[in-house]
Design the sequence.
C-alpha cells in the first residue's frame, strides 16, 4: 500500500521538511505523507533539485509535527480513477431548450400569419434573404 518517499534531510527555518526522494517515480503533489509509525506528517508541497536526484518539500500538517533527520517518509500512491458510464447532461434550471430548425420555420410561418400573410419586413429573416419583393420592380 504505502510507498517510500524518502529520508528526511532537514527542516527549514520556516518549518518545511526536506527529504531526499528514493523512488524513481516522483509522487504527485498534494500527496499525504506519513512517517514510519503511520502518523500523518504533512502534504507533499514541492519537488526541487535536479531531475536525477530530486528532493521533496513537505508542508507539515501542524506546527507540533517534529520529524528527526534520517526518518523515513512514506506516501500512499493515488488509486486510478474508476470510469463511470456517462449520463446524459442535465439541463440547468431555467435554461432555454435548443431551437430546432422545424420550430424556427413554424415561428416564421406564425409571424407571417399574424401579419396577414404579407412578406417579411426589410431586414427580417426569411427563406431567400435579400430585399423584400415589394420594392423589386418599383422605381
Sequence:
Amino acid at each position: 500500500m504505502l510507498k517510500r518517499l524518502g529520508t528526511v534531510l532537514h527542516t527549514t527555518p520556516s518549518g518545511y521538511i526536506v527529504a531526499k526522494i528514493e523512488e524513481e517515480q516522483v509522487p504527485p503533489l498534494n500527496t499525504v505523507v506519513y512517517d514510519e509509525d503511520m502518523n500523518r506528517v504533512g502534504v507533499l508541497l514541492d519537488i526541487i533539485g535536479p531531475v536525477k536526484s530530486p528532493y521533496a518539500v513537505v508542508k507539515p500538517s501542524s506546527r507540533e509535527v517534529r520529524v528527526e533527520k534520517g526518518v523515513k517518509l512514506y506516501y500512499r500512491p493515488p488509486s486510478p480513477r474508476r470510469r463511470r458510464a456517462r449520463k446524459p447532461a442535465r439541463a440547468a434550471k431555467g435554461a432555454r431548450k435548443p431551437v430546432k430548425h422545424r420550430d424556427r420555420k413554424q415561428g416564421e410561418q406564425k409571424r407571417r400569419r399574424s401579419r396577414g400573410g404579407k412578406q417579411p419586413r426589410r431586414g427580417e429573416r426569411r427563406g431567400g434573404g435579400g430585399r423584400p419583393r415589394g420594392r423589386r420592380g418599383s422605381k
About this structure: Residues 14 and 29 are 19 Å apart (CA to CA). Residues 3-75 form a domain with the Thrombin, subunit H fold (CATH 2.40.10.230).
